[in-house]
Amino acid sequence: MSGQMPEAFCLIRSVIETSWYALHIARDPKVTQRAECWLRRNETDDAKRRCKQEFTISRVVATHRNCDSVTAGQLHTIYERTIDAGAHPNQFGAMGSMMSFDAADQITYSVGILYPAQLQVLFTVKTAAEAAIGGLKVFAQIFPERFRLVGLDENVESLVSELNVIFLNYREASSGPSAA
Hints:
Radius of gyration: 20 Å
Largest sheet: 2 strands, antiparallel
Low-confidence stretches: 176-180
Number of helices: 9
Number of domains: 1
Order of helices and strands: HHHHHHEEHHH
Helix content: over 70%
Distance between the termini: 41 Å
Shape: flat
Strand content: 5-15%
Number of strands: 2
């Protein structure tokens, strides 16, 4: 009902969770215990219960905070934003592009399926880009040497700068002439 933006937030959330799971597995002090727990999740009811206990959001975020608290905080904020924007069914995601128009004795509702509001689309695109960059930063914690070898560590920082410039420029262009 809202231009497939809630569906996009489900995927964005998955990017974040997948990167956190990978980091949580990679930082296992017992080397393979978490990986085995995750890989054997569906073998028994007990294995599923253990896996659910091991891979809670609070645990995987705590692992990330131990490696890079700044990025962990930023990515957790984005994660929560995805939930609010439709990664979990809720009123904001389902009705995000719905508008109402009051006429004399009638209220008309319009759903932006083919014409979603530009601000909402940009919000979705920006969130997707932020999550992708955050995911790269998480994987840099897992494979730091490989990131440095190919120069990806520098490229990620460049992406952050470009993202900030793009959306700052849009904000300035959409706000009209400044009141100088």
